[in-house]
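Internal tracking record. Fields below are filled automatically when a chain is submitted to the structure queue. Please do not edit lines marked as system-generated. If the sequence contains nonstandard residues, flag them in the REMARKS field before resubmitting.
Queue: standard
Priority: normal
Entity type: single polypeptide chain
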Amino acid sequence: MQTKPISRRIALAATAALLAMSGTAHAQAQDIKLGFNGDLSASPSAQSGAAGVLGIQAAIDDINAAGGVLGRKLTLVIRDDQSQPPKSIQNMSDLIDNEKVVAVFGPTNSGNAMAWKHIPNQKKIVSMGMIGGGTAITAPLSAGADNYMFRVSMVDREQVSGLMAFAKKAGYKKLGLLAETTGFGAGGLKDMQELGKLQDLDVSVVERFAVGDTDMTSQLNKLKSAGVDAVAVWAQGTPTAQLMRSMEKINWFPPVLSSWAADNVTFFDAAGKTLAEKPVFMRTMVDPRTPQQKALFERTKAKLAAPSAFPFVIHGYDAVQLIAAAMRQAGSTDGEKMRVALEDLKQPVQGVMKAYEKPFSKAEHEALTATDFAFVKWSNGRLTQITDGVASQLTPADFKR
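SYSTEM-GENERATED OUTPUT FOLLOWS
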């Protein structure tokens, strides 16, 4: 597998963002502005943000070529939040108040969405997530409140639902839980504890580590001493790789279930080919399969930091299609009317991943669930879908929530 150095990939992501931003200067006053607010340059997840922007722009191009929406062209305004919550908050206000966007896509990092989710809700502007998977992102600010946070992407709790079902079917009794000390890690840990109990698994053994830690042997030794059958980890790609290297240090390799961050090429680079093959995780897809997916991949592959980032292209593409459908149904770009339309879409929306038939409701703002995801691992330097063994035995009824 040929991969570029991490610094080079992040630079390419930033360059892609700048190129995309340069096109917004030509937007006409009558254009419908959409916004993107996410990391494009700072964290290991920046490549996901860059891929998402590629998908958003591809959908905009296709929609504009077909005549636009409500007789108007779409245009994209991009803001790089550099993985910093204060910057992300500032970007959100700028996009809504100054740029007058009618919807915002992103962010890359779940913690940033949690930092500013009150803004689109207060200003009644739809936010369509297509990268960050934090479970609480799409929860309303209060019970029964109108909610402007939607998502078409992986969801942490749905991933955990799948992983806990996998653990149960595999016959594991006692799971050791590991999580990084970030909002992402804390949310995933909460989901693992709750859904593990729903599967009657012992999830009482818990250890944490900082996102920048490079030695987790102390935590692993505690899990080993506790006699766990397998390990479930919720962390970003690079710290998950450091965890695998720490397993190598003590020569202890229990089965590992991981967050989808293990699909990131930064995980593969940091872990190395052999260790990267240890974890099992979930993602929305592996390789493009349908003619539509293959065509979109061919359009965008040259700009991707790594082929493994392609699902975010699809998420970005489909997110725009859902927003466009809401505007058409509402006959308006008014945020409240768009929210109401999204919660009751009358016609199926043909995306690149699938056709979305009433994906949202007043109470449900997630377009994808665990049944849409695939079990995946690295094999010979490539992401490979697991289609046999435990994964093949799972049914929708096994995914408890």
